[in-house]
Design a protein that fits this description.
By secondary structure, the protein is an alpha/beta fold. It has 3 domains: 122 residues, Rossmann fold; 171 residues, 3-Layer(aba) Sandwich (Rossmann fold), CATH 3.40.50; 73 residues, Helicase, Ruva Protein, domain 3 (Orthogonal Bundle), CATH 1.10.8.60. The protein is 48% helix and 13% strand. The strands form 4 sheets. It has a 5-stranded parallel sheet, sandwiched between helices. Strands 7-10-13-6-14 form a 5-stranded parallel sheet. The longest helix has 36 residues. The chain is elongated, with a radius of gyration of 32 Å. 31% of the residues are buried.
């Protein structure tokens, strides 16, 4: 790919000569006669190399050097001057100039210097990309959300695929499944990882306060607005903004959020001026947004704007294989410097058989309670909350089948037969029955077969 060179000089004859020379070498050349004009158009020009004269009206070459260093310190800046001195050359290098070129110079010298600058630019880009990839792989290995169940792994794999993009992501799942953890994981693996990760719970604030938090406000826009305040969408520039419980947002705010996502700009409360935002949006909800749309509580256009990539985190009751991993993780955290407490195997059996309506958050709280009650001793099932130990509120099936057995009795007999045929191996029995292991544990618990 050809390198883009921005040449700045107030003498058009020199500009024309340099432009012809560099184009002949395959460079993509843009010329400007003013440093101010070049800096005003910086984003649009996006050069790989800057070649600028030092003595110019308005912004000097040294001013341009400083401005470029602020915008992108990786861009090589070559300074040209006819009034060269040792001190000016030293000052230029100390301020980050790639090279100090004295006029008049030969075409061969200029071309050789530009080639070196181009090679340096490529090497720096590759170095940055390599560091990002190393950091991404390290983070992927060490910071990956915990779980090995098939459904959860599929979600995390998809999260890792979309993380390097800037696409909007919608994360769905029951309360406590870890939606914010997945959102933070996406941010960590993204190109915006150096930027901030800012989150807000849309259901935790009243509408007027939520609007001010999201979009900011100007002084005097409402009672208590004693000074201008930057909104969180603007404060998250260069990073990721996580909208938790997006389904709780009022229809009026949904309209403003939709405009912010589409136009990439916001209007602070009480202001008539727009402000640009540079942020990736990740939203999450425990509601069925399609049902909310049918009820007229959620805008379909906002839903389709958010629903570019959807990640649905399965509930913990469908992730029985993840329970031992999560138990180990939480107990290690709770143990601190002492290390994780020991526990009976029955603890895992009980935890796997429970439905976990509060999901991973409820599991963490249950383990914290058990650790406190154990007081440094071995964890047993007795330390678990009563709700975890109680069987589901369903009628237990009698061991003696009636003359006309019900479907439930037949099912019980078949399940136990398969379990016996598999030598008591619950995982293999669940696979033969075509059900999730957690479902099998609940059935056995209902049947009164726990061992």
């Amino acid at each position: 790919m050809s390198q883009k060179i921005l040449v700045i000089d107030d003498e058009t004859s020199i500009l024309n000569t340099i432009e012809i020379l560099l184009r002949g070498e395959g460079f993509e050349v843009t010329v400007r006669t003013s440093g101010r004009q070049a800096m005003d158009e910086w984003e649009a020009l996006s050069p790989d190399i800057v070649l600028t004269d030092i003595r110019m009206p308005g912004l000097t070459g040294m001013d341009v050097l400083g401005a470029v260093r602020e915008r992108d310190p990786e861009v090589p800046v070559i300074l040209m001057t006819a009034q060269a001195s040792l001190q000016s050359a030293i000052d230029a290098v100390n301020h980050g100039a790639f090279y100090y070129l004295q006029k008049p110079f030969s075409n061969a010298d200029l071309l050789a210097l530009c080639r070196r600058a181009a090679e340096t630019r490529v090497l720096k880009r590759e170095n940055v990309a390599l560091k990002k990839e190393i950091r991404r792989r390290d983070t992927s290995r060490s910071g990956r959300p915990i779980g090995k169940s098939r459904g959860f792994i599929e979600v995390i794999d998809l999260a890792e695929t979309v993380a390097p993009t800037d696409s909007t992501v919608l994360i769905t799942g029951e309360s406590g499944t870890g939606k914010e953890i997945v959102a933070r994981y996406i941010h960590t693996l993204s190109e915006r990882s150096e930027g901030p990760f800012i989150s807000i719970n849309c259901g935790a604030l009243p509408e007027n306060l939520l609007e001010s938090e999201l979009f900011g406000h100007v002084k005097g826009s409402f009672t208590g607005a004693v000074k201008d305040k930057e909104g969180l969408l603007a404060a998250a520039r260069g990073g990721t903004f996580f909208l938790d419980e997006i389904g709780e947002m009022s229809p009026a705010l949904q309209v403003k959020l939709l405009r912010a996502i589409q136009e990439r700009e916001i209007v602070p409360v009480g202001s008539t001026r727009t402000a640009e935002i540079d942020v990736r949006i990740i939203a999450a909800t425990n509601r069925d947004l399609e049902e909310e749309i049918r009820r007229g509580m959620f805008r379909s256009d906002l839903y389709y704007r958010l629903n570019v990539i959807t990640l649905h985190i399965p509930p913990l009751r469908e992730r029985a294989d993840d329970v031992p991993l999560l138990v180990e993780h939480f107990l290690e955290q709770l143990g601190g410097a002492k290390g994780p407490p020991a526990f009976d195997e029955q603890v895992i059996e009980r935890l796997r058989a429970y439905d976990w309506p509060g999901n991973v958050r409820e599991l963490e709280n249950a383990l914290e309670r058990a650790t406190v009650l154990a007081g440094g001793t071995r964890l047993t099932a007795e330390h678990l909350p009563a709700r975890v130990l109680q069987p589901p509120a369903e009628t237990l099936v009698s061991d003696k089948p009636p003359e006309n057995p019900t479907l439930e009795v037949i099912e019980r007999a078949y399940v136990l037969w398969v379990l016996q045929a598999e030598g008591g191996n619950k995982a293999r029995a669940a696979e033969v029955l075509g059900i999730d292991p957690s479902t099998l544990y609940r059935k056995l618990n209902r049947y009164g077969v726990n061992e």
